[in-house]
Write a structure and sequence with these properties.
The complex is a heterodimer of chains A (231) and B (289). Chain A has 231 residues and is α/β, with parallel strands linked by helices. Chain A has 9 helices and 10 strands. The chains are: A alpha/beta (231), B mainly alpha (289).
Chain lengths: 231, 289
């Protein structure tokens, strides 16, 4: 569903992504792990068109979206849940969701989203800035889902959340997979990644260096973790 | 004139003055809130509105056509300017916008002089707005009442547009985080073009409404641009409600100041701005406050 071939991205003279390849089948969850600063967030922003890529191609299904502006990428069915959530602070919960609404007949209409996230229904009239971190994360996911995406990019969704909220997040991510949404999960939280992903990837210095199922990763973890993940 | 009649007359006068200031300030603040640019051409577009309104009114003999047509034409001009020139500058720093909008002010000023000449042009209010009405047995110009009423209607309309319409929602979202709105499918280039056009159209509306009071002249731009900046600074850059409060404050300070202490009237406006900045450096409803 989402295919990245040889993605290269520069920030000025800094060569951040150095030929990233990733192929994500429909309805699967692929988690990308890696130390801070290896390029995980840059990869997500490049897919969305928020950062201009200097080489490589990105496909959603059979459509080549390389170099498209963010709003066209979003309209092609890619939804983005950014690191830090980036909720619109002065818009209400409902208004935040409505920004992402585009077509009638979405598989995820507002009423269904409020059923999926009961805490948001209770705070529907509150402004984004008045929500807790967990509520903001659920709102960021709801805001992405309302566009009825084919692919969701989740960048560090568990960051700063209490364990109970992370468990709720895992429940939602699994539910989305059951609904056929393809998910790219960028995470530092290994437990969450292992718990929900079908496939784990590790990024080091702008390249994918490892790919395995969670079961294989667990078997190899003692050698892989110090080599690629711990500081 | 009784004290009550005088106060009522001054109150309506201040409201009408505030309305003119609001048309300028709200456009400036909407543009800044969304695009983070200070439009130095705002005064020139106000002036352009007055002259375009004059020509439309003279050509058609219909004041209402001029009132609707001038903001529309100047708004379309603003949209075209954003689309063709400003859009290329968003990745540059603020200096580029200052230079370009200042340049636009000079070009518009010179184009107005070449097209309409250097003499001030008298613009007549339509007969229905030309007379006086009696408030507490004292005569009061109908046109001033019309200005005050128009200001209230336009303020409510903009507020409802921003709060209730889909485009208003997208404007507010883009003002708060343009990249995030863009990533949610909002074409922020289109939003910017719309808002720049709306801001320019509102400035032109102010110009065409002010013309029967002050004549359409080349000096219009310079006299109002400072007032507009003061309003936006007092209200808080980017705040719709702030621009409304700022326009009301300055409108009342100007009218009452001119009557009771004319020698200090100009100073009062800056004293109000100074007081606001000391207490709330980001303006009354600004984010940095």
């Amino acid at each position: 569903m989402l295919r990245i071939e040889g993605m290269n991205t520069h920030y000025g003279a800094s060569h951040v992504l150095q030929g990233v390849d990733l192929d994500m089948p429909q309805g699967r969850i692929s988690a990308v792990l890696g130390r801070n600063g290896v390029g995980k967030t840059t990869m997500v922003k490049t897919i969305m068109g928020l950062v201009v890529q200097s080489g490589g191609r990105v496909h959603v299904g059979s459509t080549d979206i390389t170099g498209w502006p963010p709003h066209r990428v979003a309209r092609e069915g890619v939804a983005y849940v950014p690191e830090g959530r980036l909720i619109f602070p002065d818009l209400t919960v409902i208004e935040n969701i409505q920004v992402g609404e585009r077509k009638a007949g979405s598989a995820w209409p507002l009423a269904r989203l409020l059923e999926l996230f009961p805490s948001l229904r209770e705070r529907a009239a509150n402004r984004g800035s008045q929500l807790s971190g967990g509520e903001q994360q659920m709102l960021a996911i709801a805001r992405a889902l309302v566009s009825d995406p084919k692919v969701m990019l989740l960048d560090e969704p568990s960051q700063g959340l209490a364990p109970l909220v992370v468990r709720e997040l895992a429940r939602v991510i699994r539910l989305l997979r059951e609904e056929g949404v393809t998910i790219l999960l960028v995470e530092q939280n290994m437990k969450l990644a292992e718990a929900v992903a079908d496939e784990l990837h590790i990024m080091v210095k702008g390249r994918m260096v490892y790919r395995a199922t969670p079961a294989v990763f667990r078997a190899e973890e003692e050698t892989i973790r110090p080599r690629f993940l711990t500081v | 004139m009784s004290t009550l009649a005088l106060l009522l007359s001054q109150f309506v006068d201040a409201l009408s003055q505030s309305a003119l200031l609001f048309f300028l300030g709200v456009g400036l603040t909407l543009i800044f809130g969304l695009m983070r640019i200070v439009n130095f051409a705002h005064g020139a577009l106000y002036m352009l509105g007055a002259f375009v309104g004059y020509s439309l009114g003279t050509w058609s003999g219909n004041y209402w056509l001029a009132l609707a047509g001038a903001p529309l034409l100047v708004g379309l001009f603003g949209t075209a300017f954003e689309f063709s020139i400003l859009r290329r500058l968003y990745r540059r720093d603020a200096h580029a916008f200052l230079m370009v909008t200042f340049g636009l002010a000079l070009v518009v000023g010179e184009a107005v002089r070449l097209t309409w000449g250097s003499d001030a042009l008298k613009v007549a209010a339509p007969p229905v707005l030309s007379g006086v009405v009696f408030l507490l047995d004292e005569p009061f110009p109908v046109y001033r009442l019309f200005l005050a009423a128009t200001g209230i209607v336009v303020a409510v309309a903009i507020w409802q547009f921003l709060e209730r319409s889909r485009l208003g929602l997208l404007i507010r979202a883009t003002s708060q985080n343009a990249d995030m709105a863009n990533a949610l499918g909002v074409d922020i280039k289109l939003i910017r073009s719309c808002v720049f056009g709306i801001g320019c159209g509102l400035a032109a509306l102010g110009g065409v409404l002010a013309a029967p009071l002050v004549t359409a002249s080349n000096g219009m731009a310079a006299t109002v641009i400072i007032d507009a900046f003061v309003i936006v600074i007092i209200g808080g850059m980017g705040s719709f409600l702030g621009s409304l409060i700022g326009a009301l404050l300055i409108g009342f300070v100007q009218v009452f100041g001119n009557y009771y202490a004319p020698d200090f009237a100009l100073a009062f406006m800056y004293l109000v701005m100074l007081a606001v900045l000391v207490v709330r450096p980001g303006g009354l409803l600004g984010k940095e406050a």
